[in-house]
Amino acid sequence: MDASPITLVGLITNTSQRFIVPVYQRPYSWDDEQCQQLWEDVLSIGRRAEGKHFTGSVVWIQDGTMSAAGVNAVLLIDGQQRITTLTLLLVALADYAREHAASDRRSDTESELHFSCEEIVATGFLVSPFKKGEDHYRLTLSQGDRATMRSIVDHLENPEVSIVEGSHRLIENLNWFRNHLRNLADPNEIWDGIQRLEVVSISLAQGQDNPQLIFESMNSTGKDLSTSDLVRNCVLMGLPVERQNELYQNHWRKIEETLGADSYDEVFDEFLRDWLTVVTAPAPLVSRDLYRVFKTYVETNGYDKDDNVIDLLVEIRRFAGYYACIMQGAEEDAGLKHILDRMRALDVSVVNPLLMTVYEHYRQKAFPRGDFISMLRTVESYLLRRAVCDVPSNSLNKYFLSVIARLNDVLDSEDGNYREALEALLLSESGTARRIPDDREFKQALLTRDCYAFRRSNYLLAGLENGKHPKDPIDFSAGTYTIEHIMPQNALAHGEWKQMLGDDYQTVFDHNINRLGNLTLTAYNSELSDGSFAQKKERAIGGYRNEYLSLSSELHDANKWNEQAIASRTERLAREALSVWRMPALSNETITKYRPRKKAAAPRKSVTFRMLCADGLLQVEDRLEGQRSRYQVSANVTPGFRIRLTNGEEYDSPSRAAIRAVQLSGASVTSINGWIFWTTKGRQLSDIRDEYLASDAEGRVIQRTTLYSDFWDGFYSYCVDRNDFIAAFGDQSDRTVPKDSWTTFSIGHRGCHLSSLLGVRDDYLVAEFFFSDIEQYQIFLSHREEIESHLSSSRADIKWDEIDADKKSRHMVVSRYADYKNGDWEDLYAWLADALLRMKQLVSFLD
After folding, report:
1. Quick count: other Cβ atoms within 10 Å of Cβ 815?
2. pLDDT for residue 212
3. For a tag site, which of 154, 233, 538, 617 has the least CB within 10 Å?
4. Using CA atoms, how far apart are residues 668 and 50, in angstroms rounded to an integer?
5. Pair 674, 662: CB distance under 8 Å
6. How confident is the model at residue 823, as a pLDDT?
7. In this predicted model, which residue has the larger pLDDT, 728 or 217?
8. How confident is the model at residue 104, as a pLDDT?
9. 704-846 is classed in which CATH architecture?
């Protein structure tokens, strides 16, 4: 690596090299904000008599090729946004100079320009005028921007050449600079400022410096690197240039196009999060760690070896297709598209990973189209029913992870019904915060709630209408139809409505104005306005008498619209909603069959195949057999603790090895749980992994910090299902999981709080009052007999600090024996939650 200061002009006008933005770099992305910053920096230094302005670093590496004309191709690792924007500014200056030279309308006080269009073109700022082909252009952008940038430069050299419209940001920013130059009193200030921009030029040595590590550690002076930038570079950067171009054109560009080239920057990170959620489930995913998780996934599955990167790109593109169907309406099957469009209107993005999982398994032909449609409708009902009943969605993230993992198990088991499994998993959460509201709860909410204030009221009414004619649905998404109050919001300003509502018209109005039965959809909201019921009914245009929507069938013949009529229609629509958004019906036996297993003592992601080998649970040359009888595949454990297939390929990941082994047998699969697939000596790898997790010999098991975080993560998840705990301490589902042995819970008193402590070494679990205020502790201690009586049912030991103890704090401790090694912590969770709740009730002694 060599680093040296240089003027930016000196760097870009070096005739012996030209800059290329490699395909793995993000597209040009600067907008007005970054252009404004560059403009102000250049203008500021241009107005000073002397000095330079440092504008960051430019990192580059030669790709090892030199043209016949002796020009080196230099790959930009960092700095492409600044150099591209500066190029646009130079083009704008050249345009200005050309217009200035052609104009005779100049005042005598205006100064001569310090630059000309000919100078900018001829002296190497934009082109090498005597070079042909690729060598002619000083800067070559990546695929999506290349044609537009070249056409901009070509147009400058020959105005008859049209500018290609492909990259709108290039064109918009060029026009931004053109407009600002026209409004600037002295454009020489910009030209002079450009000459004094300075950078640190960092050249990397081919084969010695790692450009990816350097790239990951840098932040641009303009827009920070996004996760999509890092991911693209991770996939392509280390490959030869020709291979980069091939993979970009044939694979990565297809991903960009699938997700929408114009909105790719914004969409990719969301897609990446959802895809990684699918492939790493049930491990929780932290958004700020997306790139780290991606790199781990690539390395664990062997995608960074040999030519496996193609398999990775194919997988990403496939899931990008599912994401586009879910979020962008890209599904070509009209029946599927209609349901997915409705679900998108619900705007519950946390369900996307689950939908992508089911999509993947559908494409693998794990179930027929009819089952897929049925499952989508079930998920739609799940989401809508919860929304109507105001069930919070903050617990769904972790829940859907468990559903995804369980569905993967069902797919591998060969003896399960996928559709039944999904329905059973949704039904198994009855009585918890993750439940699907049953018909009674759903109907009661529809009968009583304010449906006008409901964010999804339009969706609800449209669904009720189309439920009457599902094969010929009306498209309500265009915005033509809006929600109409049959009894208008301004009804009490009119005597006719008061008379119709009766003597207690104010109470009737308040109770019914926003009920479901008083709402409908119409394309004539402004025409109907707040007229009387008779006027709204008899209008020639949009009148209720001629309304064709089945949603409003009661209005055809009704002569009055009062509390009884509204209640009757509310009942009818609520009853129909039960059929439109159906509750799945399965036997208790079926639900129990698919119920998720209890959480293990540690997340599965903490154990790798290599760890089992290093621990001696697997031996070198042990034979692995595929569990599925229809795939006669096998493998062996290598001396390097990898899985070697019969064709010689080696993998670190059991799942990746299983997928490849089955593909070699002629089957088309893209998803297998390798821990369940592979067996050795009659045991599944998952069983051997469980043995490893349960073992604590010689301290080989999970480190204590991992156990701590696993326990608290499980406890917070457990508390999501305890409405009494949520009421007392709030929702714990989004709480940061500690890596320490203790955690705290606020009780609203300064100088006192509740905490819990794990005694892993000595096998105990503690809930305690921690007092930093000694006077409060003394008050609390004075009620010792009552407090111990209240806690007598806690199956616990109770200890108090002496009031005159020689320490700054005082503790009242409730503790019990705890076995952390058996992995079944549900009993500990229940005890701790109950103990904390009982202790919270004791706060009254401090009031």
Report:
1. 18
2. 56
3. 538
4. 68
5. no
6. 58
7. 728
8. 47
9. 2-Layer Sandwich (3.30)
- pLDDT tens for 64-75 read 566 777 788 888
List % helix, strand, coil for the chain (3-state, nearest 5).
50, 10, 35
User: Length of the chain, please?
Assistant: 847
Structure tokens at 342: 């409705």
DSSP 117-151: HHHHHHTTSSB-TT--GGGGBSEE--HHHHHHHHH
Cα–Cα dist 59/201, whole Å: 6
Tell whether pTM > 0.90: no
Please state which of the ranges 292-306, 693-707, 818-832 shows the lowest mean pLDDT.
Answer: 693-707
For every residue of 556-617, which 3-state class applies, written as one string?
Answer: CCCCCCCHHHHHHHHHHHHHHHHHHCCCCCCCHHHHHHHCCCCCCCCCHHHCCHHHHHHCCC
d(CA 534, CA 539): 9
pLDDT of residue 814 exceeding 60: yes
Residue 19 three-state SS: strand
- Mean pLDDT within 20-39: 84
8 A C-beta contact, residue 758 and residue 708: yes
Q: Cβ of 166: how many Cβ atoms within 10 Å? A: 16
Tell me the per-residue pLDDT of 94-145, one tens digit each, with 9 for 90 and over.
999 988 876 644 444 345 888 999 888 888 888 888 888 888 888 988 877 8
Domain boundaries, the chain: 2-220, 226-330, 334-438+585-595, 450-580, 604-699, 704-846
Q: Within its chain, how far is the Cα of 648 from the centroid?
A: 37
Nearest to 87 by CA among 148, 4, 26, 164: 148
Average pLDDT over residues 639-650: 87
172-176, 236-240, 317-321, 678-682: least confidently modelled range: 236-240
Largest Cα–Cα distance in the chain?
Answer: 101
DSSP state letter for 261: G
Apex 18 CA angle, 13 and 23, nearest 5: 135
The residue-averaged pLDDT of 431-451 equals 91
Q: Buried b vs exposed e over 125-149: b needs ≥16 C-beta within 10 Å? A: bbbbeebeeebbbbbbbbbbbbebb
Do the beta carbons of residue 307 and residue 265 sit within 8 Å? no
Sort residue 726 into left (φ over 0), alpha (ψ -120 to 50) or beta: alpha
- Measured CA to CA, the distance from residue 598 to residue 825 in angstroms comes to 9
- Are 654 and 643 spatial neighbours (Cβ–Cβ below 8 Å)? yes
Q: Give buried/exposed letters for 475-503 (b at 16+ CB in 10 A, else e).
A: ebeeeebebbbbbbeebbebeebbebbee
Give the pLDDT confidence score for residue 246 in this predicted structure.
84
Alpha-carbon span 516 to 172, nearest angstrom: 48
Q: Which residues pair with 744 in a beta bridge?
A: 755
DSSP 820: -
Proportion of the chain above pLDDT 90, given as a percent? 28
Strand intervals (E) in 773-824: 797-800, 810-817
Contact at 8 Å (CB) between 144 and 23? no
Closest among 75, 72, 73 to 59, alpha carbons compared:
75
DSSP labels for 503-546?
TTHHHHHHHHTTSGGGEEEES-HHHHTT--HHHHHH-TTT-GGG
Joined together, the tokens standing for residue 604 give 């599965």
DSSP state of 262: G
Cα 438 to Cα 252: distance, rounded to the nearest angstrom = 45
Give which of 720, 737, 730 is closest to 754, Cα–Cα. 730
3-class secondary structure, 768: strand
Instruction: Tell me how far apart the alpha carbons of residues 768 and 812 are, in angstroms, rounded to a whole number.
Output: 5
pLDDT tens-digit map of 529-548: 777 888 888 875 777 887 77
Given this model, what pLDDT does residue 221 score? Answer: 47
**C-beta of residue 834 within 8 angstroms of C-beta of residue 815:** no
Is the bond preceding residue 584 a cis peptide, omega within 30 degrees? no
